[in-house]
Amino acid sequence: MMRRVLTLAAVVPLALMASAPLSSAAPTGGQISGAIFTTDVSGVPVNLNHYANKQDVYLNGGPGINAPDSAAGLPADTYTFQVTNPNGRVLLSTDPLACRQFTVDASGVIQSVAPSGGCAHLTGIDGEDNGITVQLYPYLDTPNPGGVYKVWVTPTSRLDCSAWAKTGCFVPRYSKTDNFKVKENAVVEIDTRFWKNGQALLGLAAGWTDTVGASNVKYSEYNPAVLAYNEAHVEAAEEGTHSISVSNQAGCTIASVTGPMGESYKNGSGKYNVSVTVAPWTAGDNTTYRVEVFCK
């Protein structure tokens, strides 16, 4: 698949931004460790998070795809999820919040939908970590012309229906999100690659904060089956301003980050926040926004 690669990114030191530096330890300030992602019913990632039918999309969670063994999973807790349009202003999930709950055990993966009782969603078995996957359906069609949906996950105790009603009781700073598409095949993605001595590094973390201020973490991977070529992969990125955060981690002491027009940014602290503005979607237009991290 041919993809147009853009460098519409601006890089500033992370110390100057409000977001916290990425760490494999449990984050502070209310952010949740670990990652959420969508897969098929058996826990297998789907090419570019593009699904043929809404019923095919299942929620999964843990340390993150291709995360190192030392990476944290989701904290043990009870969580609630929802599906919205990309900017979070249109709630697409059609059943009550109480029907969209699940639990995570001490291993950091999803284990049960028991809190939802008789209205719990369908589940599958993740063959990799012995957790379960949770079907996101039922939800309405997205109004987004590119076919993009956003799934949110937040600890049930952090739901606040008075805080920001436009996100359906989900407070962005306490939530993890991931995007996916149904039917529409155009690619709009943000890819972060890590390099050392000319070689791509795998299993390194890039934090992602979306346009509504919710966050997730992606890990660099090589998996041609899902069109991931040595990159930490944000799929189905919606229009607007996103942030990619990178910091020193095992195997990578950051020397520089490449941003717009190939400029190299160096601040010596090893902490950077990359602002990526995703342009309005055009039918049939495949676009990749790249962040390049050079390690020493």
Descriptive notes:
The protein is an all-beta fold and 296 residues long. It has one domain. Strands 1, 13, 14, 17, 18, 20, 21 and 23 form an eight-stranded mixed beta sheet that branches. A six-stranded mixed beta sheet has the order 4-12-11-6-7-8, with no helix packed on it. A five-stranded antiparallel beta sheet has the order 2-22-19-15-16, with no helix packed on it. About 8% of the residues have low confidence.
Which SSEs are present, and which pair or pack?
Layout: E1 4-6, E2 9-13, E3 35-39, E4 50-51, E5 58-62, E6 77-84, E7 101-104, E8 110-112, E9 123-125, E10 132-135, E11 148-155, E12 176-182, E13 188-196, E14 199-200, E15 205-209, E16 215-219, E17 221-223, E18 228-234, E19 240-247, E20 254-258, E21 264-265, E22 271-278, E23 287-295
Parallel strand pairs: 1-23, 4-12, 13-23
Antiparallel strand pairs: 2-22, 3-5, 5-10, 6-7, 6-11, 7-8, 9-10, 11-12, 13-14, 13-18, 15-16, 15-19, 17-18, 19-22, 20-21, 20-23
Supply database-style keywords.
296 residues, 41% strand, 0% helix, signal, 23 strands
The overall pLDDT, averaged over residues, is 85
Sheet with most strands: 8 strands, mixed
The count of DSSP E runs of length 2 or more, i.e. the number of strands, is: 23
Total number of helices = 0
Count up the domains.
Answer: 1
Helical content stands at under 10%
Question: How far do the termini sit from each other?
Answer: 32 Å
> Which parts are unreliable, with pLDDT below 50 for 5 consecutive residues or more?
7-29
Shape: globular
Rounded to an integer in angstroms, the radius of gyration calculated over CA atoms is: 18 Å
Order of helices and strands: EEEEEEEEEEEEEEEEEEEEEEE
Judged by helices, strands and strand pairing, the structural class is: mainly beta
Binned strand content? 35-45%
Keywords: Signal
Signal peptide: 1-25
